[in-house]
Amino acid sequence: NLLVKLLQNPRIDTPTNALNGFSLNGLKCVNDLTKLDMWRAYSDMREANYKNADKYFHARGNYDAAQRGPGGKWAAEVISDAREGWQGGISGRGAEDTRQDQEANAWGRSGGDPNRYRPEGLPSKY
């Protein structure tokens, strides 16, 4: 994908380069912030270590990223698909867990309330 190659190469990430009306510099910024959103959700999930909270954190990370606009939504989808593709092959949790993770990812990206997946008793700081 050309856009992925452009975003991964900082030498061509200048305000004078544009794609569909957006500067590559701006897209890189959204991509970096999306990574931060996704990382924060993952980090919180690890910190919470709370039973049945996985899908909530999937939805929340994608929701937060998608709130940054189309670039955030796109980057969240790319990150989620890559993670599930990688995890699906090594986690041993199986295709059904991957399907449920992707359902929660898509729910969050579409603007759905992540609390749909929030387990009862999860501390309010999350």
What features would you describe in this structure?
- This is Serum amyloid A protein.
- Helix 2 crosses helix 4 and helix 3 runs parallel beside helix 5.
- Helices cover 64% and strands 3% of the residues.
- The chain has one domain: Serum amyloid A protein (Topoisomerase I, Chain A, domain 4, Orthogonal Bundle), CATH 1.10.132.110.
- About 12% of the residues have low confidence.
- With 126 residues, the chain is mainly α.
- Strand 1 and strand 2 form a beta hairpin.
- The protein has a two-stranded antiparallel sheet with strand order 1-2.
Number of strands: 2
CATH architecture assignment name: Orthogonal Bundle
Major pleated sheet: 2 strands, antiparallel
Query: In percent terms, what proportion of residues is strand?
Result: under 5%
Summarize the structure.
Belongs to the SAA family. The protein is mainly alpha-helical and 126 residues long.
Give me the secondary-structure topology:
Layout: H1 2-8, E1 18-19, E2 22-23, H2 24-48, H3 54-66, H4 70-90, H5 95-109
Antiparallel strand pairs: 1-2
Helix pairs in contact: 2-3, 2-4, 3-4, 3-5, 4-5
What are the defining features of this structure?
globular; 126 residues; Topoisomerase I, Chain A, domain 4; 64% helix; 5 helices; mainly alpha; two-stranded antiparallel ribbon
